[in-house]
Amino acid sequence: MTYNSSLLRLLDERGYIHQMTDAEGLDALASKQVVPGYVGFDATASSLHVGNLVSIMLLRRLQQAGHKPIVLMGGGTTRIGDPTGKDEVRKMLSNEAIEANIASIRTAFERFLTFGDGPTDAVMVNNHDWLGQIGYIEMLQKVGTHFTVNRMLSFDSVKLRLEREQPMTFLEFNYMILQGYDFRHLSETMGVRLQMGGSDQWGNIVNGVELARRMDSKEVFGLTTPLITKADGSKMGKSVSGAVWLNEDALSSYDYWQFWRNCDDRDVGKFLRLFTDLPLDEIARLEALEGGAINDAKVILANEATKLCRGEEAAKAAEATAAETFAGGGLGEDLPTVEVNAEGIRLGAACTALGFTASNGEAKRKIGEGAVKLDDATMDDPGQLITVPAGETRKLSLGKKKHGILKGV
């Protein structure tokens, strides 16, 4: 389909569109007015991760095309838990923990979006502000009558859980009702016409579209992105060492840069389109590079993605650290660092402390495989005590791509 609106042309050209509830209707609307659109994020941790990044970039593209992005934080729905893709009930968080997570997450959004009071400025809202006020009987009367259990059982978020014989609480079963009500509430109070999200949210988004039509006779729209996976089939949110967090206090800028630098050759073009602002003709040139030249494209990807998330100075520092570590054989200042006191630290514990491994057990396996080096010498004993004189440093490496500093204090 050929789109007339700059919004859908932009999303289509860069690979964001998977499904839409009414492509022609949304295209016509976006061609004639500012469209307020939102994506919802639950606050289960103090930082979002790379798996959330395509949804954040959706909001950025919405703003770039002259429309209004709304970040919906799930202060209310976090207390329930989205069952989509889950086998277990979400751990309950305190009100204080959820509020602290939302405040921390906002700092990442401020890198990607321009917030303010203007017609296309981004705003952040919290669904606890309305979900926390509505009574149970009122919710059942106003919203519950528009949902049938038969249809709710047909959605993948419920059906797959039951097929795997994993328990689903009635609390979780209500999640799709609350998410649908969010869309309806935002359309009523803020004129929101579009909800966006990942392909796994399609059923929940359709519920909201239908609820707004049934309760208010309003036409609203839904759009989902394709499931973003790496060339090896793994999910975007994970690396060998765990989640690739967006916040600096959860993951160093150097490790964030390295995640992009170490991507599969086959992913370079796709990631440049989705996660950077580089022009499409430049991206076409970069993804056509072959052999060792593709590494130049990966460095550009790492720089551009890190610049968006962490700032230009962080991207430059990470690139300089990588160049010094890999080309010059030195220790760049931006490498992950662990301070070691006079008592020293065991080799396995050092690997885990630097984020090379998720546990001491994994560190033991890596050391046994001969993958760990201390000052470029292969180590074989995870229990070996490493000491570092105060004021001096030693280099610890896992394979050829992970390096860290042990600093004596």
UniProtKB/TrEMBL annotation:
GO BP of this protein: tyrosyl-tRNA aminoacylation
E.C. no: 6.1.1.1
The UniProt record lists the keyword ATP-binding: yes
GO molecular function per UniProt: ATP binding; protein homodimerization activity; RNA binding; tyrosine-tRNA ligase activity
One Pfam family in the UniProt entry: tRNA-synt_1b
Motif ('KMSKS' region): 235-239
Catalytic class of the enzyme: ligase
InterPro entries in UniProt: aa-tRNA-synth_Ic, Rossmann-like_a/b/a_fold, S4_RNA-bd_sf, Tyr-tRNA-ligase, Tyr-tRNA-ligase_bac-type, Tyr-tRNA-ligase_bac_1
Residue span of motif 'HIGH' region: 43-52
Protein localization: Cytoplasm
Main subcellular localisation: cytoplasm
Subunit composition and interactions: Homodimer.
Physiological role: Catalyzes the attachment of tyrosine to tRNA(Tyr) in a two-step reaction: tyrosine is first activated by ATP to form Tyr-AMP and then transferred to the acceptor end of tRNA(Tyr).
Family: Belongs to the class-I aminoacyl-tRNA synthetase family. TyrS type 1 subfamily.
HAMAP family the record matches: Tyr_tRNA_synth_type1 (MF_02006)
Protein name: Tyrosine--tRNA ligase
Species assigned in the record: Novosphingobium mathurense
Source lineage: Bacteria, Pseudomonadati, Pseudomonadota, Alphaproteobacteria, Sphingomonadales
